Amino acid sequence: MENQHHQNLIPILDAIPLPIAYANLNEKHILFNHNYLNFYGINKEHLINNSIKDLIGISNYSKRESHIKKALSGELSVFEYSQSDNHGSVTHYEIHHTPIKNNFQTVDGILITIIDITSQKMLIDTITKKNEYFKIFVEKSKDMISIHDKDFRYIYTNPTNERLSGISREFCTGKTFKELGLVSEERADQLHGLILKIFNDAKDIELTYEGISVDGVTRHFRTDFIPELNSTGQVDAVISITREITDIHHVKEALKSSEIRYKTIIDQSPFSIQIINLNGVTIHVNQAWKNLWGITLNDI
């Protein structure tokens, strides 16, 4: 009767796209699907009533034995291993040993499931490498870089942030702008509002402002607030990258001042001056030109 029940389960097991088998308390194979046979490259006659040790050999069995015994004692156990083919390609697997219990909650045997986790391993390795590269870049960056959660707390600051703010990274972690007191309450509220907006909209925001550094000098900064998205597209955190733009600000101010002086010289010149752009359009005339021609720029 039990053998007939097992036979009825085979079509169900064969429909599962994973190598799967059932072994009794003596670790002998009682039930298995065709994917399990294909995985080990054997036929049904070779496997039936043979033990796990017979199938995989003493050396491989010694590596899995503790996991098998753990499952037979009633606990799920997962064994991970890698296998190379003749071409040097490596495939990673997880073998799940799941205890199967009867109505009295005692173990009757174990279910063995083999899962190919190569793609997951490659993804994890890729993410790990990217995180390592990201950390190297951030730690060495001359920009001030920090990461904030939805409650506006610092969850990371880089060494440059620590150096320019004069506050240790450890002290910053877990605190908000207001709690640190680096900016006014009004500015803190503005920053908190920007971070909240990014969590809601998932869009970058740029902010330029001036502040006083630890050396007491007024400096100009530009901060880019960037959403950090998870796999579902939701915002997990906000990355802020702050760059000092004091030199750029001074250049802009100098250019603006030069432009004003240049315009003043032109307007006060006793000579008639007309400025025409590359498209042949007059964009400025001085007072001497107006006096000479008797018309204004708007009249042209």
What does this structure look like?
The chain is of the alpha+beta class and 300 residues long. Helix content is 43%, strand content 28%. The protein contains eleven helices and twelve strands. It has a five-stranded antiparallel sheet with strand order 2-1-5-4-3, sandwiched between helices. Strands 7-6-10-9-8 form a five-stranded antiparallel sheet. Strand 11 and strand 12 form a beta hairpin. The protein starts with a helix and ends in a 7-residue tail after the last helix. The model has no long low-confidence stretch (mean pLDDT 84).
Keywords:
300 residues, alpha+beta, 5-stranded antiparallel β-sheet, elongated
In a few lines, what is going on in this structure?
This protein has 300 residues and is an alpha+beta fold. The protein has 11 helices and 12 strands.
Instruction: Give start-end ranges of low-pLDDT stretches.
Output: none
First and last CA, distance? 106 Å
Report strand order across the widest sheet: 2-1-5-4-3
Order of helices and strands: HEEHHHEEEHEEHHHHEEEHEEH
Helix content: 40-55%
Radius of gyration: 36 Å
Characterize the main sheet: 5 strands, antiparallel
- Tell me, rounded to a whole number, the average pLDDT: 84
Determine the strand fraction and express it as a percent band: 25-35%
Shape: elongated
Number of helices: 11
- Count of individual beta strands: 12
